[in-house]
Write a structure and sequence with these properties.
The protein is mostly helical. It has seven helices and no strands. The longest helix has 39 residues.
């Protein structure tokens, strides 16, 4: 009975940490949404809110990191449980960095809202990118919650789409700057935001790859999409 009680307590500890990771993921996704809204609508108050909430993201990372360290010290997990803890530690690092990228976007939004300028940036080029990275993050977190690798390859494919959209936006912005030097400042701001969004996609892909490692015990970083698909389909 004592062993059964200890096991249930251990399981509850792991589940509590997983719930915090998902809470952090939900907060980070909202940060992305609010940062884009602040940018498109030049909403300084919302931009300030995003920057202030970054501390909540950081606090959650610290809490989860400490929880994982305590579990390792007390429980000495092995095999699947150890992989689960390693995956959660890596996942919160990527979530924290996504939060940082959202904060960068919010800073641009605040700068634009407070400036008096002739040329205001248009962000049509990156709205599609934002939609894609949000979907990537949501899919990766869903895969984490369910420990389901079936859609992780889809996240990797979408990351390639985001990269291509970033390159297309960069080419377009370079054209604008060459044709009219007065748009250089504006174009650089859009490019800075586009790069932040592209990095969010990279971090979402990382999270999906950690899920494959957790479930399959296979490290799928730095391999082709075809190889990743084969790994996820193997029973």
């Amino acid at each position: 009975m004592q062993f059964e009680h200890t096991y249930k307590q251990y399981d509850a500890e792991l589940e509590s940490v997983r719930a915090k990771v998902l809470q952090m993921g939900g907060l980070v996704e909202q940060q992305i949404v609010n940062a884009l809204d602040a940018l498109v609508n030049a909403n300084s108050n919302l931009a300030e809110s995003v920057m202030a909430n970054d501390s909540r993201v950081n606090d959650l990372e610290i809490q989860i990191d400490e929880d994982c360290s305590h579990i390792i010290a007390r429980r000495q997990p092995a095999a699947g449980d150890l992989r689960m803890i390693m995956m959660m530690v890596k996942t919160i690092t990527d979530l924290e960095r996504i939060g940082d990228e959202a904060t960068k976007i919010a800073r641009v939004a605040q700068k634009i809202s407070e400036s008096d300028r002739m040329y205001t940036p248009r962000f049509n080029e990156i709205k599609s990118m934002v939609g894609l990275v949000r979907e990537m993050l949501r899919t990766a977190l869903d895969a984490f919650a369910r420990l389901d690798v079936t859609k992780t390859v889809e996240v990797a494919r979408q990351d390639e789409q985001v990269d291509e959209q970033f390159r297309a936006a960069m080419r377009q912005l370079i054209t604008f700057m060459l044709e009219d030097p007065r748009t250089i400042s504006m174009s650089l701001e859009v490019l800075f935001v586009a790069k932040a969004i592209e990095r969010i996609g990279d971090h979402a892909k990382n999270i999906a790859e950690y899920v494959v490692y957790m479930v399959k015990g296979k490290d799928v970083r730095h391999i082709s999409l075809e190889e990743m698909e084969r790994e996820t389909l193997q029973s």
